[in-house]
Amino acid sequence: MQTIDFSPFYRSTVGFDRLFNRLDTLVGQEAKTYPPYNIERTGDDAYRISIAVAGFGNGDIAIETKENSLVVKGAKPETQGDKTREFLHRGIAERAFELRFQLADYVEVQGATLENGLLHLELKRELPESKKPRTIQINGAAQPTIEDQSVN
After folding, report:
1. CB 52 within 8 A of CB 117
2. What is the pLDDT, as a whole number, of residue 81?
3. pLDDT per residue over 73-86, tens digit each?
4. Whether residue 21 sits in one domain with residue 49
5. pTM of this prediction?
6. Using one digit for the tens of pLDDT, what is the confidence trace for 106-146?
7. Which residues have C-beta within 8 Å of that of residue 42, sequence separation ≥ 6?
8. Quick one: 38 and 26 in the same domain?
9. DSSP label at 114?
10. 83, part of any domain
11. How far apart are CA 65 and CA 121, in angstroms?
């Protein structure tokens, strides 16, 4: 497995240590392929994650957010009726899944909808007022002008 050494960046950056720690953890993770999903930008600060969850209902899916992490879990409850089902071909996977997404700072889940076998998660980045750009007033002594000087 290939590893990337981010230590040279620590010398020339301040406050980005969390970013490099995240990159270190992402390098070691294997790519999840089930269920398939899309991530799209729907606006300047709006995003949508669409996950194909065919066969799962509202009660079978749990969505949790904690700090900068989003976890989507799905599991079908075991029922006695499943033992009597005999599949000639099984192409619709109903196995349990867990997807984890790392969210950027100030990105929050606004809502979730389940329609036509797709789970849509709406995300939005909302910067607090203290983090938005602002103009700083420059204060200083007034510079004297020619009109201000009196002639003696």
Report:
1. yes
2. 57
3. 999 887 655 667 78
4. no
5. 0.67
6. 899 999 999 999 999 999 998 888 878 888 888 877 777 67
7. 48, 122
8. no
9. E
10. no
11. 12
Does the N-terminal peptide bond of residue 35 adopt cis geometry, omega within 30 degrees of 0?
yes
Token reading at 123: 């995300």
Joined tokens for residue 61: 């899916």
How far is residue 60 CA from its own chain's centroid?
22
Residue by residue, what is the 3-state secondary structure of 52-83?
Answer: ECCCCCHHHEEEEEECCEEEEEECCCCCHHHH
Strand order in the sheet with 37-41: 37-41, 46-52, 118-125, 107-115
Can you give the pLDDT at residue 11? 60
From residue 119, how far is each of 30, 65, 70, 109, 115 by CA, in Å? 23, 16, 14, 13, 7
Q: What is the DSSP letter of 87?
A: -
How far is the C-alpha of 74 from the C-alpha of 97, rounded, in Å?
Answer: 5
Using CA atoms, how far apart are residues 113 and 120, in angstroms rounded to an integer?
5
Domain match, 50 and 97 both: yes
